[in-house]
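Give me the fold.
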Amino acid sequence: MRAPLTLAALAIVATSALSACGSDGGSEASGGDKDSYCADLKKDASTFSDLGGDNDIQSVIDSFHKLADEAPDEVNADWKVLDGAFVKLESSLKSAGITVEQFDKVRSSGGKNLPDGVDPAKLQKVTSELQSVDSTKLQTASDNIEKHAKSACKVDLSPS
């Protein structure tokens, strides 16, 4: 069973593969403050499990960037893997001239409604670029983060 973190990352990255989901989101520094990290992880946990609900992509991306920056040494590299999927998404969208908001509208409509100004050929280019994301690495990183969250932060990120 996939963890919500992987599902969040894959849902956003993989949904760019709608049949019609660069910039450095985190610093290279490692070893954030565990208490701040755990508090933010607990606060943002519902964001990951409710991706299809009221949370927009930008709020999920922002959460991943922040947690990747704060992650303690034990899971810092794992957060960089997950956050890297979002960095790739943002970079691909930017190079295609598609905003995160436009992409979110395409994602939320299941690919049925392209907002004005979204070129289907450019969206397909984004799709092709994002298909190179290694889902096995995302799953492994997610599993490591989920275990650490439970043991170090007392936050259960497993699917409900």
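Confidence is low (pLDDT under 50) at residues 14-29.
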